[in-house]
Amino acid sequence: MRAGSVSIETFHHELNRLKNHDFSKQPSAYRFPHIRITNGAFSELNENQICSLADFLGSIKDENVCALFRFAGMATLEEVSFTRKDGQYLRWDHRASRSRGKRFEKGRIPEFQDAIIGRLHGFLDDIKNRNGGGVSGNVEVIRGSCLYKMAEQPDSFFDLLVTSPPYCNRYDYTRTYALELAFLGCGEQQIKYFRQALLSATVENKSKRQALRAHYCSLKHDQLFSRVESAFDEQAALREILQILHAARDAGELSNNHLPNLIENYFFEMALLVFEAARVIRPGGRVIMVNDNVRYHGEEIPVDLILADFAEKAGLEVEVIWVLPKGKGNSSQQMGRWGRKEMRKCIYVWRKPVGGNGRSLIE
User: Fold this and answer.
1) How do residues 149-182 score in pLDDT, each as one tens digit?
2) Are residues 156 and 289 in the same domain?
3) Which of 2, 30, 326, 351 has its CA at a distance of 20 to 30 angstroms from the CA of residue 209?
């Protein structure tokens, strides 16, 4: 939305000012607000230049330009750091002070000054190619956890829902995007709150079932919540998998004893979101979702089929499950004990029928 209404001339003017900005000048008061897992992510030179950008942002009077420059700064952090996003972790280059002797090297790390100016030139090219058009004025960004915000949306309101939710793979995006969150001023406690408030996908997540039930009761949606609980409790494949994993935990065989809790929390919350999708989509509308099957303790969890079962119980018809040509491998720990097994990566298409019953199809 900012890019749709920003003045090209003003953006270009501020970019030229930034090119002439003295990044070597000691920044005034701003210091990068590191959290524990980002300490040491930048060279001293790049950290000083990031802080110098913060000083420069304070001199930009145009709100839209300032927002885009700040976004460019955030989008450049990983490129100029000693880190690289690697699944649920930040992988550390051996040149970082906290690398602990690891041999990983991400290659040339540019100076922040050069990197952000290059990125802003890319922004400028995109803005020039707007063809005179802007972004729809009907765009609304809803801030908050989907687990709570979906319940507040009106019935049969949306034509289409396209989503790629977190997978049931233990990825903690508050760690993966730690640099960006810190840059935005999120401290340790706020990040811990995000981790718990968002869809459960890590072993650290605690059950939100009681809190969600209270939220739904406050909205007079307790009947829908009861339907979700029934669909979740009656899902046979999920019950069987949880029984196997609970037995493995009791026998001390799991790599992490919180894995059954992760899977239980994940699928309960996904069931809730599937039922909400069925409620907010208009008749004839569709839900399109990307997700992967996962494997724990040698057991493949058919995420696609479990979620399809939830969708049908919520009143959606499963039009198709597209299985991507190349599946997903399993972790080295899984391979070492259970061997290699490729798991399905899928795109689901669910439709809310105008009337009658749908059919299930897997291709």
Assistant:
1) 999 999 999 999 999 999 998 888 888 999 999 9
2) yes
3) 351
